[in-house]
Write a structure and sequence with these properties.
Number of strands: 7
Largest sheet: 5 strands, mixed
Number of domains: 2
Low-confidence stretches: none
Strand content: 5-15%
CATH class of the largest domain: Alpha Beta
Mean pLDDT: 90
CATH superfamily of the largest domain: Glutaredoxin
């Protein structure tokens, strides 16, 4: 990624280039934007370099950027989001060049008889499922997932406390509470999850064993709306 950032920095009209991840990886997009803002830039262009790009990517990224601005409370530079690689007219040209260079492609070695590998049954007692259903994706679930995974790595959650494993999930059910995640073994639902909510769920629930009621939704048998 640093190589791509260095390449982008050489382009006309670009004064500085850096990278950030919308899913797992450091720096996260939010951290990268915060660092750029410290340089007092007046205009930021976000260039999505990923394939495939979800149809709702731009919509949920805009929502997330606006939420970060609201949470920050300080002035932000102007923000723009460029088209993705899939929409670029240069993508077919790039693909044609890769095909033309097939002589340099890596050859897959012949299949050999392999010895089956065993697997350890996980000892971790906690599971966190992050919903990847349509409404949750539209609400920025990928950014929430990335923040959770980064915190899992930073705080060594697999081996800390009861041990925690995380996974993406199909629809968890309460779509109007998006983005949603569920913590086991309690089965606690959390809705309207933000990065700040993740930090509290990690410290208070996963490590402290106490449900974070500010973001928790109990199965009351009646429809519930997202608390603001």
């Amino acid at each position: 990624m640093q190589r791509l950032a260095d390449l982008a920095a050489t382009l006309p009209g670009v004064d500085h280039a850096s990278f950030g991840f919308t899913e797992q990886g450091t720096p996260s997009l939010r951290e990268a934007l915060a660092a750029l803002r410290q340089t007092n830039v007046s205009d930021i262009l976000i260039l999505p370099l990923m394939l495939p790009v979800e149809p709702s990517f731009t919509a949920w990224l805009v929502k997330s950027l606006r939420r970060w601005q609201a949470e920050d409370g300080a002035p932000w530079p102007s923000m723009r989001i460029a088209q993705g690689l899939a929409e670029s007219p240069l993508l077919p040209v790039l693909m044609a060049e890769l095909v033309a260079g097939a002589d340099a492609a890596t050859t897959v070695p012949p299949l050999e008889k392999l010895t089956p590998e065993g697997s350890l049954v996980p000892a971790q007692k906690r599971r966190v499922l992050v919903c990847q259903g349509g409404p949750c994706n539209a609400a920025g679930a990928d950014l929430i997932w990335g923040h959770l995974r980064n915190q899992q790595d930073r705080q060594k959650l697999r081996i800390t406390g009861d041990g925690t494993m995380t996974a993406k999930s199909t629809c968890l059910g309460p779509c109007n509470l998006a983005p949603v995640l569920q913590v086991f073994p309690e089965g606690t639902y959390y809705g309207g999850v933000t990065e700040a909510a993740i930090d509290r769920i990690v410290s208070e629930h996963l490590l402290g064993g106490v449900v974070v009621e500010d973001f928790a939704y109990q199965p009351t048998g009646r429809k519930q709306v997202l608390r603001r």
